[in-house]
Design a protein that fits this description.
single chain, 128 residues, mainly alpha, 6 helices, globular
């Protein structure tokens, strides 16, 4: 999921449960396309791979992700900006407040995606 803040999901997709998140994240970034001005992209450590970081740089994002402790040449990242990643985690927490999402009652991907969209719209309407 790509989110602008704790209330706004920009894009999301489903991936198989046994698959790594990074390839699906790269597909989402490619779908969003290049930017006209640099924007910080706060990522979980699952996305700290070279391919994902390079794609983010190529598309005009500033990747903010801590390096793995096993890296031989770790990079510097904006620690203050990385602390704001909890905003996205709050969005996930709010989504998991709906039982149909956290327990995955819907067996068809199309129905599950539809319900996630419904919840995001309902959550957005609460702001009005």
């Amino acid at each position: 999921m790509v989110a602008a803040d704790d209330r706004t999901a920009v894009a999301f997709s489903l991936s198989p449960g046994q698959a790594h998140d990074a390839p699906a994240g790269r597909v989402l970034l490619e779908r969003l396309g290049a930017l006209t001005r640099p924007v910080h992209l706060l990522m979980d450590r699952a996305y700290e791979g070279n391919k994902t970081r390079q794609l983010a740089l190529d598309l005009g994002y500033i990747p903010v992700v801590p390096p793995s402790s096993r890296r031989l040449d770790p990079w510097e990242y904006d620690r203050a900006m990385y602390r704001r990643r909890n905003e996205v985690e709050r969005l996930f927490r709010r989504l998991k407040g709906y039982r149909r999402i956290f327990s995955r009652f819907e067996k068809l991907d199309l129905m599950f995606i539809g319900f996630v969209n419904f919840v995001l719209v309902m959550d957005g309407l609460r702001l009005c």
